Amino acid sequence: MFTPEQLQKVWMQLALQGMGANLGALQALQAANMSAGGGPTTGPPPGLFPPIPTATIPVVNPGSPTTSNLTAEQIIQTCDQLEKADDIDRLARFLYSLPPTIAQEVVSNEVVLKARALVCFHMGDFRQLYSILENHKFTQGSHQKMQYMWQEAHYREAEKQRGRPLGPVDKYRVRKKYPMPRTIWDGEQKTHCFKERTRSLLREWYLKDPYPNPSKKKELANATGLTAMQVGNWFKNRRQRDRAAAAKNK
């Protein structure tokens, strides 16, 4: 018999990796759990995909008439809108809701692949993220965001393993150990340091507000040419450095 925690992990893996294609396996797992006394399971455990009100994109179960009636173009457009809005919860639930037959029609589409990669990144499913990035060639317009997720995921894994934040030298070593695949990189060497003008602008905004809201992050991203994720990560790292310096000076 599976515990609720074990079932939750299975739900997450099947939902992300198969986009609904593993529904049969999940149903078999649920039936086995019920026969062993685990009780009925009609959907993902509470909290895995928390309810978020939406007027335009309904939250449904796999294979429901709502998503079954969507065309491939509508699925791609929805993924693109949610990815650009950085609405990870709704994006994850939308991908999960796609029935196997429809999911297969868009499984190789770049917009859908970017959406899946983004969900995997935010859920910490880095193994699946790496698989998506390594096995599908992305166009140059998608490179910056995919590169950021590739490197940031490896940084986080290294931080977890070492039990401490990474310094510049640590991050350099991680990048050398895990070079970006050519599927998200054109081979041109790039500096991993922001330009002085960009750093100055980031510092200026940080002094005004160390905790910018999503709207301010997007505004700053547009002003610097960075992504909203890069801006958010810079602010997070700066706050960590300031706290460490303050603790050291006590």
From TrEMBL:
SMART domains: HOX (SM00389). Residues 185-245 form the Homeobox domain. Pfam families: Homeodomain, SIX1_SD. It is found in: Nucleus. CDD domains: homeodomain (cd00086). Coiled coil: none annotated. It comes from the Eukaryota. Keywords: Developmental protein, DNA-binding, Homeobox, Nucleus. This is Homeobox protein ceh-32. It comes from Trichostrongylus colubriformis.
